[in-house]
Amino acid sequence: MTRAARNWFTEGGRAYADFRPSYPSSLAAELAELTPSTDLALDVGCGNGQFTTTLGDVFEKVVGLDPSEEQIANAAPHPRVEYVQAPAESLPSSIHDDSASLVSVAQAAHWFDLPKFYDEVTRVSADGGILALLCYGILHVDDPAIDDRAQRFYADDLGAYWPPTRRLVEREYRDLPFPFEELEFRAPSIEKNLTLDALLGYFSTWSAVRAAREAGREHLLEDVGRDLAELWGDPSTERRTTWPIGGRVGRVNR
């Protein structure tokens, strides 16, 4: 198997930590400007801490919460961040009532039982606190031929394997109920230079890729790897890749 056609299905939780993109620092800073203070932020469904650590650069204390033991075990350390294994719908009692200036959810709200989660948001948020449901869309690579193959992999090769909740992300959570005072918020994009291996590693973290594997379609990622290798040239070449950020931002009023 060539390097480009490496079987990324075997990478597991470590691949998620290595290849999911981090959020721009300006996103955390802009959210902080909306909050009543920067004392405490909660990042719910934090995964490996892709956004949690960014918040740690702005808030005095950040608690990242995720139900997955594996995700928490691979979470990126930060001196202002504490990680706790807990579901979004039942936050631990150590998160006191009326304490959080920001509750953020990055690329995870579509998995939640939202009525129960919103009850927890109302409980833990300080008066005037901010809830931010964030998501990023399909990536775009700055080479047209490579980008076209990536789009076809997402929509055509994997189309049948995306869960119905993926549509919520594509529509930037506009179809989700949102019982809070909604604020206009324009988020910056994520931008990152990726090698071919990094792009394929990112693909391996998609839920549709995992579903394809379970259906015996391991060849799909290998096929796109071979196609992209022909288009990429030197696999160590870095190509500019962009993810648009969308979502909903609102104020929790008492």
User: What is the CA-atom radius of gyration, in angstroms?
Assistant: 19 Å
- The helix fraction, in percent, is 25-40%
Assign the CATH class.
Alpha Beta
Strand content bin:
15-25%
The CATH superfamily bears the name Vaccinia Virus protein VP39
Domain module tally: 1
Note the run of SSEs as H and E. HHEHEHEEHEEHHEEHHHEE
Poorly predicted ranges (pLDDT <50, ≥5 residues)?
1-12
- Topology-level CATH name: Rossmann fold
Based on the structure given, which CATH architecture is correct? 3-Layer(aba) Sandwich
Estimated structural class: alpha/beta
The number of strands is: 10
| Strands ordered across the widest β-sheet | 3-2-1-4-5-10-7
Average pLDDT score: 92
Dominant shape: elongated
State the major sheet. 7 strands, mixed
Distance between the termini: 59 Å
Oligomer category: single chain
Provide a count of the helices: 10
Characterise the protein shown here.
This protein is an alpha/beta fold and 254 residues long. It has a single domain (8-252), classed as 3-Layer(aba) Sandwich (Rossmann fold), CATH 3.40.50.150. The protein is built from 10 helices and 10 strands. The protein has helices spanning 12-19, 25-32, 52-56, 69-73, 114-124, 144-157, 166-170, 196-204, 207-214, 219-232, and strands at 40-44, 61-66, 81-85, 100-106, 125-136, 140-141, 181-183, 190-194, 239-243, 245-252. The strands form 2 sheets. It has a 7-stranded mixed β-sheet. Strands 6-9-8 form a 3-stranded antiparallel β-sheet. Helix 1 crosses helix 8, helix 6 (144-157) runs antiparallel to helix 10 (219-232) and helix 8 (196-204) runs antiparallel to helix 10. The protein is elongated. The relative contact order is 0.19.
